[in-house]
Design brief:
The protein is an alpha+beta fold.
């Protein structure tokens, strides 16, 4: 289908600034299909490239200097002067990495050997003694996992054939890590927009103290992607403002005026002028400022030095390990401002002005002049990328390492006393071994478990769930891990639904249908196919001059002018000045024109430019706090649209999209208002959403289901089978290319990893085995290979694991010939192994004893590829093997299938071909689908696919199944109906069919066509559970739970209630008693005790005859409480009741039973 919309491409023809996001885009008009590009993992790779090329060096330089005194009185300062990340290489026997050319290690080897693909992190350390530079040395701090296809990966730049030769997929995109042989992805995480003050109204603010109100302005400050800090400004009932700063997860509240005075050497009049400048007619605010200044005067804070001294004296205890004992209180105050207040800015004057802006915004919020904002809105969100999260962790770990080194040096200095001399050798000794150090072990643990261990919190809202295994069930599942964006584990427990809502601001950025149903619904979303994420900082050298040229007034210039009609201008968290309201629209248009001009680099093409206008009716209509916002920071989501004025592609962000008018069709454009147009009608769908045929004809939940089921489909997950070590993978033996493909299908190269089979589907209620979503499969189709599949498992046998010295090797026992074991002591490829078959033999070199291991899987499996991935050296043999098992999983009753429209069902019967209905031409369906599946689900797209599939088969063509091609005037039914008519079929896709049982013609015509069907990985062979007898719980004697343990199925309260409602009391007794924990117990009817009856020997005398003493040595049950055995009876009770009685007795609670003969019981 052709779309009548002009589109433009996404590749720049001129080279980009090295500081930009590292993606290449074009502004030349090209064919529409090139707009369906989806950069699967480019932003993950770009963020790691930033970490490797710039981030680690900037992080090292930013780590605070360690300052301490030695026992001899010398003042020592120790700091990093830089850091660099190396390349992955094998470690030599000495533990050092060798030269990169000789000993490169590739990801394929790490997967197979169960290793971590990582590179050394080297740092430079400078030591100053008494202020004089004394030593400079380099040390390896640890090893950092390397992302595949990043600038530090050896696969970077390889061609398709070279990638295949290295054991990778030809289409490898990278974006994940290899940790202990497993592929791990750090998912995108939603975070508050960085360096932007968000106005909040929260009840929790009021609970912070006596005078606190619900009003606040919060800003998440990020410095160069490696440091994060939260700062919140609170409004108090007294009219004063206090600032909450965070240091190592502790909150400290400081009056605003203390901080302002400590930042700049201004007098009170200048500070007051700057605070009231944007609100000249607000006398209340002016009085508040005057009151806060007066309080400062009362506290003796009259100038900058006094303010710094007060802050330093109060915070010296909290910052004790960060400042030297010889430093003054004002130095401590300066460190506090640098480390906790607006850390994204390095200049104190800029920090002063951003705090002024936050105070102005806060008072506007208090007085109801602007609308409160919410962090749940995508407009105020960004994405925490994998490279940026790792950089935050690395920077914190580098600081920890320096602290540990300091303590070691102090300890050594105390121990050696006068003989100690601080040299680079002593420093390197303190750094110790890097292999199991803070960084190596910490990052490996973080990626392996997804759990974050941190002292500072890193301004993130969660401590777990960061990383997931990049499962390769199929290509869709694999890709979705990189496109998923998660709100965080913390929000899963919240009862409010606000965080789950799909807001209008998310249009074009978050896919509306690609989210799971159930607990994570709305929290785990997926970005749309066209979304990019900025990963690098942009160059802003020419921006200030451009803003001044366009009429933006700096703070010094605006002091001489009236500010009544001015908008504040914010640039990446800097309050740069004001712009007159009359000029603001012109400035915004000019900035946008420069942004889309390829030849003008003054405004980065990834920037957001948003003009928030003041409310035309402030009393009734609230808007955001007005101003001109320009954002070029990393971690923002951007997407391409067409700029109609410049006829070029422009990247827009979530913040500015709210203030733009964007049309889809050209005739929707509003003259003078609409300046942008969507590049493609499908811009709102994700990678998986773009692969649904005719999604605009389906009920919305069905598209949601298909996005999930597409990721559970058996297909072709990989091609490099001989280099994989995945525990379990699924393979469809005979996949096909669908006859109906959306535009994105070929663009995403989905035929490289096909997911299903074209099937002839008849919509008919024929056998009675197709009720409730069940479906009947033609047995003949099954025998020809329809939906045949294989489960491929790789078993890792590592004889060296957990041992320092390897003493076991694979070797066949020459004295015992075993047909199932090869000459090398390993399984024979191609042979079928059953449970209990011997399959490999191990020789202990210490004892000379051979040990044979037996096949432990219940299902028979064919041995595939057997690989030796490690040998124990020259004198040792093979000690680490990977054994591939192929388990046949052809369709059986109970296996799950689904179309591409969320119509899932299980195979209920393999119906003989001779009994299947057939058409006039002799065609028999592969699948019988029940017609009751359509009315309530409303999957009209599947009906259209059936018609179009039949037409495509008859005309020998692939047809387009993209959304928004057809409409009410040009319907899909008419289009494909005409094609069917041309092929000699019924216009509506119906056919006359005949019964396969008696050959009679069916009175009703049957809807018969071709639908692309997927076989899902949910198979009955993995799920069926049956038990007669088996293991029981040792305490309660009830059957254990769990399929693997041979346990039972829980018969719960609801099942019990159903049995009671049916009156099936004997069935209930059988399930809950006879088949569970039936037990025989002795009870004393005299005292009603279960616990006091014990089996013991008894001696008794006959009182009638005093001369006869009868000794009875037999054992019998006797009640120890009553001392008698005449009323001991055996009763049937559940074992758990006896356990309960014993537990209650332990708490001094006695259970007394009333025992009667059944004939005496009255109801």
């Amino acid at each position: 289908m052709e779309h009548n919309i002009p589109f433009v491409c996404l590749t720049r023809t001129t080279p980009l600034d090295s500081q930009c996001i590292g993606l290449s885009f074009s502004l030349l008009p090209v064919d529409i299909t090139q707009q369906m590009d989806c950069e699967i993992a480019s932003y993950h790779v770009g963020s790691f490239d930033y970490l490797a090329d710039e981030g680690v060096h900037l992080a090292a330089v930013d780590v605070p200097t360690e300052k301490f005194r030695l026992p001899n009185g010398e003042a020592v300062e120790m700091k990093y002067t830089g850091a660099q990340l190396g390349y992955p290489a094998l470690e030599t026997s000495s533990g050092l990495t060798s030269s990169i050319d000789a000993m490169k290690i590739y990801p394929s080897e790490c997967r197979q050997r169960g290793m971590t693909y990582r590179a050394p992190l080297k740092a430079s350390i400078e030591i100053r003694i008494n202020g004089v530079r004394a030593e400079c040395c380099e040390a390896i701090l640890g090893e950092v996992p390397v992302m595949l296809m990043s600038s530090r990966c050896h696969l970077k730049g390889l061609s398709r054939s070279q990638l295949v030769a290295r054991g990778e997929e030809a289409t490898e995109k990278g974006g994940y890590f290899i940790v202990k042989g497993s592929e791990k992805v750090i998912r995108l995480l939603v975070a508050n927009r960085r360096n932007f003050p968000i106005a909040l109204v929260r009840r929790s603010f009021r609970d912070k103290g006596k005078l606190f109100t619900q009003y606040g302005v919060m800003m998440r400050c990020i410095k160069e992607n490696h440091s994060a800090a939260m700062i919140t400004m609170h409004y108090l009932e007294t009219g004063a403002i206090t600032v909450a700063v965070q240091y190592r997860r502790e909150l400290f509240y400081i009056p605003l005026m203390y901080i302002l005075k400590a930042l700049v050497p201004m007098n009170d009049a200048c500070i007051r002028d700057h605070l009231v400048r944007a609100r000249p007619n607000d006398h209340f605010w002016a009085n508040c400022v005057t009151s806060m200044l007066a309080l400062c005067q009362e506290d003796g804070i009259t100038n900058q030095e006094a303010a710094l001294t007060v802050l330093g004296s109060r915070f010296r205890v909290a910052l004790e390990d960060r400042v030297g004992p010889w430093e003054s209180s004002s130095d401590v105050g300066r460190f506090l401002l640098r480390a906790c207040v607006a850390i994204h800015l390095s200049d104190n004057e800029e920090k002063f002005f951003i705090l002024v802006y936050m105070a102005q915004k806060l008072i506007a919020l208090v007085k109801g002049e602007c609308a409160p904002e919410t962090p749940d809105n995508p407009q105020f969100q960004e994405t925490a990328l994998s490279g940026h999260i790792l950089l935050l962790i690395i920077r914190e770990r580098m600081e920890n390492i320096l602290g540990v080194v300091r303590r070691k040096i102090e300890f050594e200095a105390k121990r050696k006393a006068d003989t100690f001399n601080l040299t680079s050798r002593e420093v390197l000794r303190a750094f110790g071994s890097h292999r199991s150090g803070e960084i190596s072990r910490g990052l490996e643990y973080f990626l392996a478990t997804g759990n974050l261990l941190t002292r500072t919190g890193l301004a993130l809202q969660q401590n777990n769930g960061f990383s997931v295994i990049a499962e390769r069930i199929n290509q869709l599942r694999f890709v979705s891990h990189f496109r998923a964006i998660h709100r965080g584990a913390f929000f899963m427990e919240m009862r409010t639904t606000d965080v789950r809502k799909l807001r209008p601001e998310a249009w074009g950025f978050i896919c509306p249908v690609h989210t799971p149903d159930g607990a994570p619904c709305g929290l785990l979303n997926h970005v749309t196919a066209s979304v990019r994420i900025v990963t690098h900082y942009s160059s802003l050298k020419q921006m200030p001059a451009l803003l001044a040229e366009l009429g933006v007034l700096s703070h010094s210039a605006v002091a001489l002018m009236p500010t009544d009609e001015m908008y504040p201008v914010l640039l990446d968290g800097r309050f740069v000045g004001y712009v007159p309201r009359s000029k603001a629209a012109y400035v915004e248009k000019q900035l946008r024109a420069v942004k889309v001009d390829r030849n003008d680099r003054r405004v980065p093409y990834v920037s957001e430019i948003a003009l928030v206008r003041h409310s035309s009716d402030p009393v009734n209509i609230q808007t955001q706090y007005p101003g001109l916002c320009i954002m070029t920071d990393p971690a923002r989501m951007i997407r391409p649209v067409k700029n109609l004025a410049a006829n070029a592609t422009e990247f827009i962000g979530t913040f500015e999209q709210v203030y733009l008018s964007i049309c889809i069709e050209p005739d929707e454009a509003e003259p003078g208002v609409t300046m942008h147009q969507e590049l493609h009608p499908s811009c709102l769908f994700s990678f998986a959403g773009n692969l649904i045929p005719f999604p605009d004809h389906n009920q919305s939940p069905r598209n949601v289901y298909q996005c999930q089921m597409g990721k559970q489909t058996m297909g072709t997950p990989v091609h490099a089978w001989s280099h994989r070590a995945d525990n379990k993978m699924y393979r469809l033996q005979f996949p096909q290319s669908p006859l109906l493909k959306p535009e994105a299908y070929d663009k995403y190269e989905m035929d490289e990893y096909p997911l299903g089979t074209n099937a002839c589907v008849a919509v008919i209620s024929y056998t009675g085995y197709d009720m409730e979503d069940a479906m009947v499969i033609n047995k003949s189709s099954f025998q020809r290979g329809f939906a045949h599949g294989t489960v491929i498992k790789v078993e890792r046998v590592n004889l060296q694991e957990g041992r320092s010295i390897n003493s076991d090797v694979f070797m066949n026992d020459p004295t015992k010939k075993t047909p199932s074991i090869g000459e090398d002591g390993l399984p024979i490829p191609g042979r079928l192994y059953m449970e209990g078959d011997p399959y490999y033999t191990v020789l202990s070199l210490d004892t000379g004893v051979y040990k044979t291991h037996h096949f432990k899987y219940a299902e028979p499996a064919y041995c595939g590829i057997v690989r030796i991935v490690e040998e124990g050296g020259m004198t040792r043999g093979k000690c680490h093997a990977l054994i591939q098992w192929r388990i046949q999983r052809n369709p059986i009753i109970g296996d799950k299938f689904a179309s591409r429209h969320g119509q899932k069902g299980i195979n209920s019967f393999l119906w003989p071909a001779e009994s299947m209905p057939f058409s006039e031409s002799g065609m028999m369906p592969d699948i019988i689908f029940n017609p009751h599946g359509f009315p309530s689900r409303m999957t009209i797209g599947m009906m259209i696919e059936s018609m179009a599939g039949k037409a495509a088969a008859m005309h020998g063509a692939y047809y387009d199944a993209s959304p928004f091609v057809f409409n009410e005037k040009k319907t899909a039914i008419d289009h494909f109906g005409r094609l069917l008519t041309l092929a000699g079929y019924n216009y509506y896709g119906n056919e006359t069919m005949y019964s396969g049982v008696d050959g009679r013609e069916m009175e009703v015509q049957i809807f018969f066509g071709i639908v692309y069907y997927q076989r899902l990985r949910h198979m009955i062979a993995d799920k069926f559970q049956v038990r007669s007898t088996g293991p029981i719980d040792p305490v309660t004697h009830q059957p254990v739970k769990g399929r693997k343990k041979g346990g039972g199925i829980r018969f719960g309260e609801m099942e019990r209630d159903a049995m009671i409602a049916h009156g099936a009391s004997f069935s209930l007794q059988d399930r809950l008693f006879n088949s569970s924990d039936k037990d025989l117990a002795h009870v004393c009817a005299r005292c009603g005790s279960l616990l006091s009856v014990l089996r013991c020997a008894n001696v008794k005398s006959h009182k009638d005859d005093l001369n006869v003493l009868v000794t009875d040595h037999s054992e019998r049950e006797r009640c120890l409480t009553c001392g008698k055995d005449d009323q001991i009876y055996i009763i049937e009770v559940p074992r758990v009741f006896r356990y309960l009685t014993a537990e209650l007795a332990a708490m001094n609670v006695r259970v007394q039973l009333s025992v009667k003969h059944p004939s005496l019981v009255t109801h």
